[in-house]
Amino acid sequence: MNALYIICGLGIISLLAEIFNFKKALFPIVMVGLVVAIAVAFLDGGNASQAFSNMINFDRVAIVFTMLISITAFSWFWMAKDYFSNNSHLTDRFAIVLFSLVGAIILTSINNMVMLFLGIEILSISMYVLAGSNKKNLFSTEAAFKYFLMGSFATGFLLMGIALIYGATGTFELLKISAFISAHSSDLPSFFYTGVIMVLIGMSFKISAVPFHFWAPDVYDGSPTPVTAFMSTIVKTAAFAALVRLFNGCFAEISSTWLIIFSVIAAITLVLANITAVYQTNVKRMLAYSSVGHAGYLLIAVVSSGNIQGVILYYLFGYSFASLLAFAVITRLEEKNESLTIEKFNGLFSRSPFLTFSMTVALLSLAGIPPLAGFFGKYLLLSLAVGSGHIWLVMIAIATSTIGVYYYFKIILAMYFKKSALSQIDLSQSLKILLVLLLLISIVAGIFPDLFLSLL
Amino acid sequence: MITAFLIFWPLVASLLVFAFHGYAKPIALAASIIELVVSIVAAVNFISDSSIQYSINYAWIQSAGINFHVGIDGISLLLVLLTTFLIPFIILSSFSINYKNPSVFYGLILLMQMALVGVFVSLDGFLFYLFWEMALIPVYFICLIWGGEDRGVITLKFFIYTLSGSLLMLIALVYLYFQTQGQHSFDIQQLYAAGRSLPVREQGILFWAFFIAFAIKMPVFPFHTWQPDTYNVAPVQGTMLLSAIMLKMGIYGVIRWLVPMVPYGVQTWGESAIVLSVVGIVYASCIALVQKDFKRLLAYSSIAHVGLISGGIFTLSKIGMQGAMIQMLSHGLIVFALFYLVDIIVARTKTKVIKQLGGIRSQAPIFTTIFLIVMLGSIALPFTSGFVGEFLLINSLVKYQLGLGVAAGLTTILGAVYMLRAFQKSMLGETGENTSSFMDLTTREKLVLYPIVVLILGIGIYPTPFLKISEAAVNNLLTIVTNYLALVK
To answer: Does B235 fall in a domain?
Structure first.
């Protein structure tokens, strides 16, 4: 709860920085503020607290998700330092990112449909702006516009769904809705179910599951790379936190309505996203499809039973840090206004062994190769699904994992196998430290997952 | 403690190699020799009964019932010894070649050793899987970075092929994990109990899930298509790792995990596995007959030999199992030596096409003698290690079913044909332009080859001590399986 206030405060400080002209100090302030937020969330530990007339519920799951988001945000700011070095609109960028974090944290702790809507909108509107923050680039503008149009459309679905659910149950509160469902399990009006399906569609858009994923590749590709990294890590984490709260919490009793739909969505997401990723030559587009694919894996957990939140949390943790690692390398390799094709990775091994090693670990983790965090996440997920009897989903996931290896390894092949005439790459000290940190997280979390799992 | 040392010392050593990259070669060699010495100490203090010794059981990921449970019994010990014995020679054999980025190269070999030892001592399903997968990464990069032409596509095929098999095994392991009683656990005994409690249909499905994973690694027909190309493009040390040690992971997996875990499934489907193995023997031998390329010839001959080992195991007889154990050792030594010898030929003549060679004997008599001994070992002449193993294995297959035994016996005959022909064409006859200045073995090459040759002959003449190591464990395994099958009937 307090972490939320701190990040809100940081956002306001960023706005004030423009007026009182301490822009230079803003970056350290934000970093320190995020560390404090992480610490506060950690100290909050098991103290569940409600706020705003019970509209948000900071229970243990919300706190751990908040920690995950804050840690990811901390690493993200570090990675995106260059994005904030440009002097124009610097404070705006800080403020927008920090407020989008507020939206993300609200999503982890929703206890009310209104908060769901608010959280999603705070997060999304910030993202629309950030996607277009590279104003001189046509693709960035296109990304923002596309994201905005599609996003508003999905929000419409979400809002309509919320309205229908309100119409049937007479309340916005998740707990009361679920109480209503158990009390009237036999005579729920059909428009209630329609509402649930509409919420499902709205949320599927936010997590970019097939067939609501069409915005993802263009937006990922067009947005500035740090923003892409933000979308594929923090936004995804927050959206899944909310999704789990809604469907595995509030709508758990009517799982027969949405279970099949989500299973089918998971299956087609896995198959389509992974197969499409194979044909991408642009690395950012490939990672976009891979990110869509990972949403498919996560949905398998949503339709399973057992420790769903723990598994999703660990998976997102492994996935986010592997992605950040990959994006940190991509940001370094990227040149101005040029799309990053796989050929740009040619011969990276001879140009910068450390960068190559980082990218290799990131890709191996994304592909789910032991002993990295990505593997243990996938293992937890598959074992959850096997335990719930979803053998057919598991078989699909296995098949798509091998397809995943194929396209991730295309980059590895390029790095080690292809030749390049380009010169050595120098890494700044700060980037080196960040890479070491992210590498350690990916490896240690994979070997000692209990350190992380015991938090929940 | 000694088991933990055997696993983690190579890891520490590989970090040392990365840290002091100027001294990669001496550090790697010294580290692997230390590892060998420690494993010999372990072997000397090993009490040859069926018990598991030097075991460590440490709670690792408690929330998922995963323990760091390792230990060594007779079956493990033989393979650990094979690994620790061959790695120093593999490292030594590379000293004449100046690879780019030597620290990465030797670091990866040592990481590979860690994973291999880990596979052979794991007594926890998850741990086993972890090491099993981890063994794939270093060898993939060794082949990718230092391999020959077209390695990109070929190594990727190899990686995806083996990975998909492994994932199948992972699902089977997870399925078994959920069948364990009480608090779910990956402990080997619990998994055994869970597997044996299943009805025959489930055991059959699990059998295939595990068998395909192991069969890809070995490789058994028809899962072998990745192998010849990969052996061919890999740098010779990579080929040695793959053929001499890594394929034993598959065979070991069958003995340690598959047979005791789902005995009923093994009994039901064992015949199919044997038929596949025997078909593979005949098929690979026939292809080997027409190979023009030395490395490919060896690759196919390896498929034939491994087919025989896998067939022998699935007879579920003592001679079959013991034959498999001794043959794993012998095949490891022989295939290592053969690939090394062929690599020497390639390095000196710049060709691996058998026809372009000839007359090496007149130039390099020591080389030719060594080649002859190793080759005779490969075609299982008496008084070589190959004979002991193949004799036991063919014997077990004949007892299982005469027809299969006879077909499997073709390995020896066809093996003799293609090997002797290759020998004749490359070593004997007129000296060609490629071989006119063929240098005999250097001291370093002798240092690698003499110990191996001594062992090949030693095991052939007096195999008892090596058979003794695994005998008790194999007996114990078979007793359990037989009792179980008698009970089920």
So the answer is: yes
Which of A386, A409, A412 faces B174 most closely, judged by CB atoms?
Answer: A386
* Distance between A368 CA and the closest CA of chain B, angstroms: 10
Range of the domain at B428: 271-489
- Interatomic CA distance for residues A161 and B55, integer angstroms: 59
Can you tell me whether residue A147 is helix, strand or coil?
helix
pLDDT digits (tens, 9 = 90+) for B333-383: 999 999 999 988 888 888 888 888 877 888 888 888 999 999 999 988 888
Neighbouring CB atoms inside 10 A of B393's CB total 31
Tell me, what amino acid is at A208? Answer: S
In a domain, B266, yes or no: no
Provide, rounded to the nearest whole percent, the portion of chain A with pLDDT above 70.
99
Same domain, B317 and B178: no
- Using the CB atoms, write b or e for B94-110: b if 16+ within 10 Å: bbeeebebbbbbbbbbb
pLDDT digits (tens, 9 = 90+) for A270-292: 999 999 999 999 999 999 999 99
| Residues with Cβ within 8 Å of residue B172, at least 6 apart in sequence | B206, B209, B210, B213
A456 band by pLDDT with thresholds 50, 70 and 90 = low
Asked if B170 and A380 come within 8 Å (Cβ–Cβ), the reply is no
Q: If you average pLDDT over residues B41-54, what whole number do you get?
A: 86
Q: Which distant-in-sequence residues (6+ apart) come within 8 Å of A166 by Cβ?
A: A113, A172
User: Are B191 and B211 contained in the same domain?
Assistant: yes
Q: Give me the count of residues in chain A.
A: 456
Helix A391-417 and helix A283-302, axial crossing angle in degrees, nearest 10:
160
Taking only the tens place, the pLDDT of each residue in A16-36 is 888 888 888 888 999 999 999
Q: What is the structure's pLDDT at B440?
A: 84
pLDDT band at A428 (very low <50, low <70, confident <90, very high): confident
Determine which of A17-21, A200-204, B476-480 has the lowest per-residue pLDDT on average: A17-21
The nearest alpha carbon in chain B to A382 belongs to B171
Containing structural domain, residue A371: 2-453
What is the enclosing helix (H) or strand (E) of B162?
helix B151-179
CB B320 within 8 A of CB B312: yes
Q: Place B79 in a pLDDT band, splitting at 50, 70 and 90.
A: very high
Q: Tell me whether residue B360 is in a domain.
A: yes
Give residue B164's identity as a one-letter amino acid code.
Answer: S
How many domains does chain A fold into? 1
Residues of chain A found within 8 Å of residue B170, distances taken between Cβ atoms: 379, 382
Same domain, B176 and B283: no
Determine the 3-state secondary structure of A49 from DSSP.
Answer: strand
Domain check: are B228 and B277 in the same one?
A: no
Distance from CA of B359 to the nearest CA of A (A): 37
Co-location of B257 and B280 in the same domain: no
- Whether residue B182 is found in the same domain as residue B291: no
Q: Which two tokens stand for residue A226?
A: 């740090």
What percentage of chain A's residues is helix, strand, coil (to nearest 5)? Answer: 80, 0, 20
The runs of H, that is alpha helices, within A170-186 are 174-183
Does the structure's ipTM exceed the value 0.90? no
Q: Which of B136, B167, B177 sits opposite A398 (nearest CB)?
A: B167
Do B167 and B288 belong to one domain?
no
Question: How many domains would you assign to chain B?
Answer: 2
Q: Which of B230, B261, B292 represents a domain boundary (last residue)?
A: B261
Interface with chain A: mutation pick from B132, B150, B171, B175, highest number of A CBs within 10 Å = B171
B208 and B277 part of one domain: no
- State the pLDDT at residue A87: 63
What is the pLDDT averaged over residues B173-183? 88
Read off the pLDDT band of A300 (50, 70, 90). very high
Q: Is the pLDDT of residue A83 over 90?
A: no
Q: What residues of B are in contact with residue A314 (Cβ under 8 Å)?
A: none
Say which of A364, A370, A416 has its CB closest to residue B145. A416
Tell me which of B232, B261, B290 is where a domain ends: B261
